[in-house]
Amino acid sequence: MKNLVNEIITFIETLTFDYTVEVRKANSKKVPSYPMITVQEINNATRTHINGQEIYSTLGYQFDIFGKDYNRISSSEICKNIAQKLDSELQNEYGFTRQTIAELPDTKDISVSRITIRYKGILNIQTDYLYR
Amino acid sequence: MNVVLGHSGIKSLISFFMIQSQKLENVINTIEKRLAEQGYQLMIQNAPTMDIDGNIGGTVGMEQNVNGYSVTYSGHDVAYIEFGTGIVGSGNYPDTEALTGNGWLYGTKRGWYYLSKRDGSKRFSRGGMLPEKPLYDSFTELERTAYNIINEVLNEKFS
After folding, report:
1. What is the count of structural domains for chain A?
2. Interface residue B124 vs chain A (CB under 8 A)
């Protein structure tokens, strides 16, 4: 079994966003900081195993982007901006398939905006190749 | 199938394909229904039956529509049950006054605010709820078992 959360977090930390983005695991106990991306593994199931050895794993990851209003830019716009960059970089680097994107809630006049994106990928844990 | 060359042979061939075409449509409908029923059962198993962090569980349904069948999970708080309400840090927020000077706005309590789908009001989750994801888990399981279901229907109809 391979868990890519730490690797993904390290990868996202190397990216340059229009805003300074905090990246962390979803169960982090650190003080909240905005804008922020949280990464959580939501699926890691054996897909194929031969002679007791796992070959392929089905992986699922959820990314939550949180933002607050900044310099008259709405939190919703900040989240969308980060989501677009994150989405293209994750698909480019890992070849994940985006399964869901949800804006929760639609916060025109509320302090926190949030966009949730879920991805799926099939990992060959012997070669580290990731398939769609 | 043996086909006699000539007019009658072509007629019987057409008739054969017409029957197969109707059979195939019936197979597709059965597969759709069988998959939806399985999806519905999985949702019943996976959907929480109790409130979670103040979020009320939804209702699982199955309906037929123009595109086939849909399995639904509806309710005021189901989006938060599926995707969670976010996380919360264990420390205090940084100095609000200093941050406001830089254009940032922070909440005063530790936790997350989110908009209630029930009444549109701002709600607060101190604990932070991780996703329960009943839909995601059901879909993943259905995807895994779909091949067997399709295979089962094809065997029933064509063997």
Report:
1. 1
2. no
Taking the model in full, what pTM does it have?
A: 0.75
Q: Are residues B67 and B90 in the same domain?
A: no
- Check: CB of residue B97 under 8 Å from CB of residue B104: no
Q: Are residues B42 and B79 part of one domain?
A: yes
Q: Which residue of A has its CA nearest to B93?
A: A31
B97 and B80 in a single domain? The answer is: no
For residue B29, give how far its alpha carbon lies from the nearest alpha carbon of chain A (Å): 25
Backbone angles phi, psi at B23, to 5 degrees: -60, -40
Contact A29 B90 (CB under 8 A): yes
Which domain covers residue A116, as residue numbers? 5-131
Assess whether pLDDT exceeds 60 at residue A65.
yes
- Quote ipTM for the complex: 0.75
Q: How many beta-carbon pairs under 8 angstroms link A with B? A: 84
Long-range contacts of B22-25 (CB under 8 A, 24+ apart): B23/B157, B23/B158
pLDDT (0 to 100) of residue B88: 59
Alpha helices in chain B (DSSP H): 7-46, 78-83, 96-101, 134-158
Mean pLDDT, 10 residues at a time, chain B of 159 residues: 83 89 88 95 91 80 91 88 72 48 49 62 66 91 93 86
Q: Extract the tokens encoding B132.
A: 């329960």
Q: Which domain holds residue B108?
A: 86-128
Least confident of A63-72, A106-115, B70-79: A106-115
Is some CB atom of chain B closer than 8 A to the CB atom of A60? yes
